[in-house]
Specification:
This protein is an alpha+beta fold. The chain folds into 2 domains: 11-65, Roll (2,3-Dihydroxybiphenyl 1,2-Dioxygenase, domain 1), CATH 3.10.180; 76-143, 2,3-Dihydroxybiphenyl 1,2-Dioxygenase, domain 1. It has helices spanning 21-32, 85-98, and strands spanning 14-18, 35-42, 45-52, 55-62, 78-81, 101-102, 108-109, 117-122, 128-133. Strands 5, 6, 7, 8 and 9 form a 5-stranded mixed β-sheet that branches. Strand 7 and strand 8 (117-122) form a beta hairpin. The protein is globular and about 50 Å long. The mean pLDDT is 94.
Length: 153
């Protein structure tokens, strides 16, 4: 099997199936500061495109009958990098106001002694999410010492 290269690839955007596109769009706008770039409807099917500075980051598709199922193949978690640990803590405060479900209490490192870390939580449909900073978390204890923190939450 040969491997070909097609230049440098970057993530374009991520699409998530949701049960209520309005509820999910509000959540992602409030927590992550995304703006609505486009929204549409085709009968009962609805979608919203969210982004920052006009750049598409996340698409939400209202076509799920139930919440996220960690036991099925597909998305493990979606991670967003913040500029600093202070920004992570600001997002954490918004999440607490919204009553989001957290996997761990507060900011935790990616592993014992790691400088990077953040908050691990679930969106309204149970999709596992992370907001982290590349440094500043080294003084916190990792909630799991035998595996990466983002592995099995």
């Amino acid at each position: 099997m040969s491997v070909t290269t097609a230049g440098t690839l970057t993530t374009g955007h991520v699409g998530i199936n949701v049960t209520d596109v309005g509820r999910s769009a509000d959540f992602y706008r409030r927590v992550l500061g995304f703006e609505v770039l486009h929204e549409g409807r085709d009968g009962e099917r609805r979608w919203v495109f969210l982004g920052q500075g006009g750049t598409l980051v996340l698409t939400l598709w209202q076509q799920a009958d139930g919440g996220y199922d960690a036991g099925r193949a597909g998305l493990h978690h979606l991670s967003f990098q913040a500029g600093s640990l202070a920004e992570v803590r600001e997002k954490e405060a918004v999440l607490r106001e919204l009553g989001a479900e957290f996997a761990y209490d507060g900011v935790v490192p990616h592993g014992e002694g790691a400088a990077s870390g953040g908050v691990f939580f679930h969106d309204p449909d149970g999709v596992r999410l992370e907001i982290y900073a590349p440094s500043g978390a080294e003084s916190a204890d990792a909630p799991v010492t035998s595996a990466p923190t983002c592995g099995f939450f």
